[in-house]
Amino acid sequence: MRFLKPISDDVRFAQLEFRKHTKAKRLVLGCFLACIATVLQATGGFLLGIGYFISPFATLPILIGAMFSLQMGVMSYFLTILLLFILFPSELVVFPFTTGLLGIGIGAAFSFFKKRLSIISLGAILLTIGIMNLLYVFHFPVLGPAVSDSFSFLIAGSIFLFSFLYSWLWVEIALFFLKKLKTI
């Protein structure tokens, strides 16, 4: 089964290659990734309609940063939050709990786990916790008006199933981009 197969050593190789760069280059790359994530996340507010399809791609820069180095991923995550606070505060509610948290979770999982199922599960758990916090703690309708803000096991299970499938998609996208970066 594909879930139980270990991922290739491409991630470890990329991390070792990344550590060979100077601290200045690593810092600049982290800032660049944060800027890309900010622009992608803000498109949901700037370009109504199509922007909502572009803004989920803000996960990728954070995920790539966390794959290379957990420290750089966390720095990019918080820098993106700061940039969103300054430039587009309405997106600040969504990014830290969904898009950014998923990127950090999957990127960190690549460093700690070797099996796809473990990596996907960690991302799904963090995304589920983030969405549930927005829905039930902050009463922010992140899933729209169709989902009430009162707790339901059916809704929680549906959110976890969605989070698992979405996390699986991002793991495969990250591995695809890592293979493309390796050829460059």
What does the model show?
- The chain has 184 residues and is an all-alpha fold.
- The chain is 72% helix and 0% strand.
- The chain has helices spanning 10-19, 23-46, 51-54, 59-68, 70-87, 99-112, 116-137, 153-183.
- Helix 2 runs antiparallel to helix 4 (59-68) and helix 4 (59-68) packs across helix 8 (153-183).
- The longest helix is centred in the C-terminal third of the chain and has 31 residues, at 153-183.
- The protein is globular, with a radius of gyration of 16 Å.
- The two termini are 30 Å apart.
- 35% of the residues are buried.
- The mean pLDDT is 89.
Blueprint (SSEs and pairs):
Layout: H1 10-19, H2 23-46, H3 51-54, H4 59-68, H5 70-87, H6 99-112, H7 116-137, H8 153-183
Helix pairs in contact: 2-4, 2-5, 4-5, 4-6, 4-8, 5-6, 6-7, 7-8
Average pLDDT confidence is: 89
DSSP helix fraction: over 70%
Low-confidence stretches: none
Counted beta strands: 0
Number of helices: 8
Structural class per helix/strand content? mainly alpha
Report the portion of residues in β strands: under 5%
Shape assignment: globular
Main sheet characteristics: none
In N-to-C order, the SSE pattern is HHHHHHHH
Overall radius of gyration: 16 Å
- Described by its quaternary structure, the protein is single chain
Ends apart, CA distance between termini: 30 Å
